[in-house]
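May I ask you to review the protein record following this short note?
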Amino acid sequence: MNVTTPGHCREALIIITPVPEISDSPETLKSYADVWRRQLSSLPKRVSAMVAVRRSTQTIQKTKTQTSSNGTVENLQLRGRSWVREDVSSERYGTQAFRVTGEGYWPVHRDAPATLVEAVLQAADVQDGQVIADLYSGAGLFSTFLADAAGQHGAVLSVEADSSASRDARFNLQDVPQAIVLEGKADEVVSSWLDAPAIGFSQGGLHGRRVDAVVMHPPRAGAGRAVLSRVHELGPGKIVYVSSETAAFAQDTRWLHEHGWKLDAVQVFDLAPDTHRMTSVGLFTRPGAGSA
């Protein structure tokens, strides 16, 4: 069982992940769910609860289905809602509110979202009217602030493979017309931009525009050659790479260096105290990249 508490601490979401002996049987799961509902009934209203069911069969009262590395995840709501609200405040870039569903990715350290937003926005140095690609965008943390910087004449292409996180991003960016959420794998979406750049943003093209910068926050394994090679072909003026795994960051940095990219600056943050993990925000540029 995990408990998710947003930075403001005014609500909480309990996430129960049952063992296969329970989750593989709809009847057994229902029986346990009824027990859990009774046990949780005395909690304050601000406490929500759900079950993350990792199997492919249908479950009762299903609220969403998403694909993960462990197969299909189906969320069974026990009480309240399946998401929490996160508020991110930056002295330089303002305050934004986000919906983050269930087990969706969100930085654990309470100061991490604002810290990373400020580092990414500083490195990207977005100008009004620019087109920015935000790969592995999750619930749209960076996309929201990048869209403000790009303005109404710019565009932010928010790319996320996880369907639940994409829904959150669409919700969080629904009032930002210059932000387009694209659900799909990063290499496949970038490939579509390369193959059909003239078609519209929402149809998988670039609307005849050039990508000025790419922001990416890949999983701990790193972006890898497939994504990096397509981003390289895209030819942005800069790449802002956020990494929570030093070894993967070093590996991808080596690939970029071999292909003419220079690591101009890097900031390193300890956002997971008492662990070996450090989070890096690197700025890469390449002579001639992104030129008209």
User: Anything to note?
Assistant: The radius of gyration is 20 Å. The chain is about 30% helix and 30% strand. The mean pLDDT is 90. The longest helix spans residues 26-40.
